[in-house]
Amino acid sequence: MGGYGSTRWNFHTKKETVEDCRALSISDLKREGVLQAGVERSGSWIWRNAYTNEYRASIGYELNTLGRFPYLRLHYTITRWDGNKRDMDYHVRLETTPCNYGGVRWWFICPLVVNGRSCEQRVGKLFLAPGSLYFGCRHCHDLTYRSSQENDKRVNALKRLGPLAILQGMNSGEIDTDKGFKALPPDIWRL
Ligand SMILES: [Zn+2]
Known about the structure:
With 191 residues, the chain is α+β, with helices and mostly antiparallel strands.
């Protein structure tokens, strides 16, 4: 028996995950009629709070599935804690595989390079984790995380001293900038 308590716990965890990461999913793009074969279109993809419908973030996209190499171009601006902005603009390759019952299934090709290796996995979902610049698959965000656990220890030590200590650690080069950025309070960054 799962129990009422565990259900509520899962619900809460899911909510936090959704708010911490921006996710792009093939199924959402299909359901909204964005992703189709043989089209070229552009627009904005908007995230809203699932409970209040309040606007949270948006990115611009350009979809092109006309040619042999379909892609989804993503463009958005990341605003850092210090107010600096970084304009992002890159292509995510798309691929199709045949379905058992006819038609095709669409995939993103993960665009991330982690530890010098490009991922290129076929995935149904891409995530933009807090403090990251690029959308990537769950596996890549995980690898990035695990490859810098020593850095994490130092970051955690600074975190106990407060956001200013983290910022100073980033400025002095003592800790990795991206890691420090992730350790800052969530409301200090925004898309
Ligand atoms: Zn990946």
